[in-house]
Design brief:
By secondary structure, this protein is α/β, with parallel strands linked by helices. It contains 17 helices and 14 strands. An 8-stranded parallel beta sheet has the order 1-10-9-8-7-4-3-2. It has a two-stranded antiparallel ribbon with strand order 5-6. The chain has a two-stranded antiparallel ribbon with strand order 11-12. Helix 9 links the parallel strand 8 and strand 9. The C terminus is likely disordered.
């Protein structure tokens, strides 16, 4: 890759459906790298279909998918006119080490649709963000994104050293086998999961473009290991510090918590950018990087640019519901928004940043009112059962169930169901008994605490430089949090990327 053709700004692959195709397309069409989130996108995909596919966007992209069988199978979820708002969403079979061919076809199709829509109508580059921790869907997700012509793959939350070789093989429509993490005794041959593009056709189509691969790293040692021990080409890095939103890497060394129960990070957790530059690969810095002057500082030590997440998360084009965006923006303007790094919230065991809102699961009372259930299952952990077979458990499922599967009460305490909460963030909350719906749990980086100074009195803003709003009348959200009483200025909008820059661009603050 030539640095001259690389983007300077990467839009972060935030959460489940926050970095949706609308936001990614807006950013990519302006000459930077728009990124869609591939996390749990198959569940997002089928819920959009069950809500009637407002605007027909999903079905428009499905019509471009090259394999009819997968499209016909997925259309069984489509509800013309949408489901009744009090009707629960139909669930997908849970992922695991082994799934049916139909399940793999749906995962690939869902990722194809998201990337295809993001690429529609412009010639810019588009990326997809996936989590190493969500192992089971990843091979089919990558293949579907590649069928849509994705340009970049970004992956964090683990050590994705097998992904470069996987991209090589999938570009030739070859079957792949990746390591599968199972707690407990290892099989002699190791635990593997497989994916074969032959689930679509016995014929071997023309080779696909192999996308560039950018692992998300939080240490120099991981960057070095990825370049030396990966099974294929690494094309660059995203350097994510502990101020970034979502999951953070745990602190290196002995864990120490502050008075708010947050892990304390030290000098060992700071990446030496000059040393990173010696690897000779481009890199982008993430975590509060939207501040003026950051691009120039990164480029001065040999970097390519920055990745910006939180500022894009609350723009008009992102997938967060309008209610959540407006609540956070209002509180930011009043200086009353807070972000906390929760040490125990995520079932993964990684620290997880949450925006503190009274009507979300960040509120302890709201969290305790929710009946524990794990019915999406993307963050389950595989473990070896006594009979030698693989079972699955999640620290956020009912505690008695978790303990019965070999987990501990201590590990389960305080864990929150991110899968259901993140779906609620984008207006796709599951309906429970008596019409109750899953509550949101909003994540954001430390930059959210400074969003008010960026807004300068504005109550909305756009990635494109103009206001854009989409309505889905079937969004079903819990009642909004009480709005602070102090009034703010009337809505106006301005752009994060106000124009296509010719040189190193900055985030527009006016």
């Amino acid at each position: 890759m030539s640095c001259a053709t690389l983007p300077v700004i990467i839009q972060g692959g935030m959460g489940v459906g926050v970095s949706n195709w609308v936001l990614a397309r807006a950013v990519s069409s302006l000459g930077q790298l728009g990124v869609v989130s591939g996390s749990i996108v198959d569940a997002v995909f089928v819920r959009r279909l069950q809500d009637g596919d407002p605007g027909g966007h999903v079905r428009r992209a499905m019509a471009r998918f090259p394999y009819v069988q997968a499209v016909e199978e997925a259309l069984t979820y489509f509800r013309p006119g949408g489901r009744d708002p009090n009707e629960p969403y139909k669930a997908l079979p849970l992922h695991g080490q082994t799934v049916s061919a139909a399940r793999n076809r749906l995962v690939a199709l869902a990722n194809f649709v998201e990337v295809d829509l993001a690429r529609e109508g412009h010639d810019g580059k588009v990326g997809i963000n996936l989590l190493e921790k969500l192992q089971a869907p990843n091979p089919a997700s990558l293949y579907g994104a590649m069928l849509a012509g994705v340009d970049f793959v970004l992956m964090g939350a683990g050590i994705p050293k097998e992904i470069p070789g996987t991209l090589d093989r999938l570009s030739e429509h070859e079957p792949v086998a990746l390591s599968f993490d199972v707690k407990g005794p290892r099989m002699e041959s190791g635990d593997r999961m497989t994916f074969d593009p032959a689930v679509f056709t016995d014929e071997k189509p023309t080779a696909l473009k192999r996308p560039a691969f950018l692992p998300i790293i939080a240490s120099n040692s991981l960057a070095t290991m990825m370049t030396r021990k990966s099974n294929g080409r690494v094309d660059g890095f995203v350097v994510e510090g502990p101020t970034a939103g979502g999951h953070n890497a745990p602190p290196r060394g002995k864990k120490v918590l502050n008075e708010r129960g947050e892990p304390i990070y030290g000098e060992r957790d700071v990446v030496d950018l000059e040393k990173l530059a010696e690897l000779g690969l481009p890199f982008w810095v993430a975590g509060g990087a939207g501040r003026p002057g950051t691009i120039e500082k990164v480029q001065a030590v040999g970097g390519q640019g920055i990745q910006v997440g939180s500022l894009f998360a609350f723009c008009n084009e992102s997938g967060l519901t309008r209610e959540l965006k407006q609540d956070v923006i209002t509180r930011s303007l009043l200086g009353s928004v807070d972000v906390r790094t929760e040490d125990r919230a995520s079932p993964t065991g990684f620290p997880f940043k949450t925006v503190q809102l009274p009507c979300s699961a960040s509120n302890q009372d709201v969290y305790l009112e929710r009946a524990r259930v794990c019915d999406l299952g993307y963050l389950r952990t595989a473990y070896r059962r006594d009979d030698g077979r693989v079972g699955y458990r999640c620290p956020s499922e009912p505690i008695a169930t978790y303990v019965k599967k070999g987990g501990t009460v201590e590990d389960a305490q305080g864990r929150k169901c991110l899968c259901n909460a993140l779906m609620s963030n984008i207006g796709l909350a599951q309906v429970r008994d008596a019409g109750r719906v899953e509550v949101p749990l909003l994540t954001g980086g430390d930059a959210v605490k400074h969003l008010g100074s960026f807004l300068q009195g504005r109550t909305s803003y756009s990635a494109r430089g103009r206001s854009r709003r989409t309505k889905n009348p079937r969004f079903r959200m819990p009642p909004p949090c009480p709005t602070p009483e102090r009034a703010v200025q009337q809505p106006s909008s301005a752009g994060l990327l106000a124009h296509r820059p010719r040189s190193a661009p900055g985030i527009a603050h006016r």
